[in-house]
Predict the structure.
Amino acid sequence: MIKYVHYKYVINFIISELEGEVVKSHMKTYETPKQYIDLSSIKLSGRILDIGGGGEGVISRHSGHNVIAIDRRADELAETPDIGTKIIMDACNLNFIDKYFDHITCFYTLMYMDLPEISQFLQEAYRVLKSGAKLWVWDIIIPTIKTADVFIAQLQVKVSEEQTITTGYGVTWRREQSLDIIKDLCENAGFIYHEGNENSESFSLCFQRQ
Ligand SMILES: C[S@@+](CC[C@H](N)C(=O)[O-])C[C@H]1O[C@@H](n2cnc3c(N)ncnc32)[C@H](O)[C@@H]1O
């Protein structure tokens, strides 16, 4: 039963993400093996800005009322649990004053952005983070060779000792993505590499603002 609901969610998500494009029933999909992500030992304090924080609202569930979740899509924010603050906003144009946040998080959001858009977002992220504050990224590796129209990252996320979420994030397969590509973009924006982890399918990165 849970599996059915989850599957339906993924399909709905893909269809809404691909709105504006013709949705073809014969579209080929690729699903990653399930990625197990444990956020339970990570503690974020102070002001937290979560980019693309609609949908499951993973970071809002993880860090609670200190989180401001922004998303360009109102429908994604509407379905997120009411924890913290939700604002419709584009990551490339952050309407906050300089040096305001202690953390910026991107949980499976960069996979939805093209590379120039990520660079523009990173400039904004740098501007609104305090000196010494951190940028956190969790995302999926998208291979260079495209073998389907739609790429779906399958995840199980341990948000806390009490809460684990099983979900899938689907996107039109437009470009490759790797830890190195994202690390280079972050360093080009001025961020200092703090730590990173990867396996064959997914990666996480943490940077510090100078
Ligand atoms: C699938 S969600 C990622 C998972 C989400 N963080 C969660 O906790 O479930 C990706 C979100 O990023 C949003 N997004 C993509 N590009 C964006 C941008 N430039 N500015 C704001 N939100 C963006 C999408 O609207 C989508 O809701």
In short: Residues 2-17 form the longest helix (16 residues).
